Amino acid sequence: MPRMPETVAALQRGAVVRAARLVRLDFASGSRFLHQGVGPLRTADGTVWSGIGELGQISDIEQAVVPTDGAPSLTLSGVDPGLIAATLAASSEVKGRPARIFDQHYDESWNLLDAPRAMYVGLVDRMTIADSGSTATIAVSLLTLLYRRRRPAFAYLNHASQTKLYPGDQGARELAALVQRTRPWPNY
User: Fold this and answer.
1) Tens digits of per-residue pLDDT, 41-71?
2) Of 6, 15, 59, 124, whose CB has the highest number of CB atoms within 10 Å?
């Protein structure tokens, strides 16, 4: 069974299938639902997605498990410079928050076909602002969920780390004696 049965069936019939790119940003103050079009757009679950029109752009999304080109970025041009201060103040509620990008398919009359399909899931990294005088451009860069995969462990499994985290705990006291050694267990 295909992942998108209604979309595939419409394409097999030769019908026109429209696609909309949806972005869900889960900020600390609440979620924002945006789409790269004009006006509101409704999905099957009743969510209304606000259009960012011609001023917004979503970069290409690489479908690899670990993208080589980096993660996608979102830009919004033609922003009122008065929003710059609010954007800079909002960086504390944006950093490390979930971001999801979906594709939603519609027929020629903009009737829903299937549920939105997740194209990218990641975290918001940082927001940058380019001010050109009368308007500004806000760019949001995203990170993949695997960006911390090479980060060292928070602590080592040894007696010193264990007693630092849990004073008085003696559970890791004999671990050093077990390195490169086979301990018979159970001992009857």
Assistant:
1) 888 788 888 887 666 777 666 655 555 556 7
2) 124
* Interatomic CA distance for residues 62 and 149, integer angstroms: 18
Whole-angstrom Cα distance, residue 46 to residue 38?
18
142 residue type, one letter: L
Q: How many CA atoms lie within 13 A of 79 on its CB side?
A: 20
Q: Are strands 112-131 and 98-107 parallel, antiparallel or unpaired?
A: antiparallel
Q: What is the pLDDT of residue 168?
A: 92
The helix/strand count (H/E) of the chain reads as 4, 9
Q: Is the pLDDT of residue 22 over 80?
A: yes
d(Cα 55, Cα 13) in Å, to the nearest integer? 34
Q: What does 125-172 look like in DSSP terms, one character per residue?
A: EEEEEEE-SS-EEEEEEEEETTTTTTPPPSS-SSHHHHHHHSTT--TT
Q: What distance in Å separates the CA atoms of residue 27 and residue 55, rounded to the nearest whole number?
A: 21
Per-residue model confidence (pLDDT) at position 167? 92
> What does pLDDT average to over the chain?
78
Neighbouring-strand partners of residue 117: 103
